[in-house]
Specification:
With about 130 residues, this protein is an alpha+beta fold. It contains three helices and five strands; from the N terminus they run βαααββββ. The protein has a five-stranded antiparallel sheet, with helices on one face. The longest helix has 16 residues. It is elongated, with a radius of gyration of 16 Å. About 25% of the residues are buried. The model has no long low-confidence stretch (mean pLDDT about 95).
């Protein structure tokens, strides 16, 4: 891969099940990730995805494209607009650096509210 190359977009339907399952899998039992009524009491219109689920989806996006031999060396993300049930998050990526077997990809995950996640992933891809 070369600097400027883009990864194909990946659309991820944000379902209630995905949000709750991701929270449970990452042992994040905060009520805002599984209880709509309590999330609303705290000012959110509904439950929303946790950062650990987002981090996993970003990693999946990159490794799905680079292949099973790719090793993620660094994932640095920042959350923005929440992922609520019923929306779709579309992940896109652009190669920003490439040196030897190391590649850096800028990743953006956008939903109906704006950018849910932005960041960079550094991966090593054996020759």
């Amino acid at each position: 891969m070369n600097v400027g190359d883009t990864l194909p977009p990946l659309e991820i339907p944000v379902t209630r099940t995905l949000i709750v399952a991701g929270a449970i899998a990452s042992r994040d039992y905060q009520d805002v990730h599984h209880d709509a009524a309590l999330a609303q009491e705290k000012g959110s219109p509904d439950i929303f995805m946790n950062i650990l689920t987002t981090n996993g989806l970003v990693g999946r996006y990159v490794t799905d494209h680079l292949g099973p031999r790719a090793v993620l060396r660094k994932v640095a993300i920042r959350l923005g607009a929440p992922n609520y049930p019923g929306d779709t998050m579309t992940l896109t990526g652009t190669v920003t650096a490439a040196s030897g077997t190391t590649i850096e990809i800028r990743v953006v995950g956008a939903n109906g509210l704006g950018h849910h996640v932005t960041g960079t992933v550094t991966a090593e891809v054996p020759a």
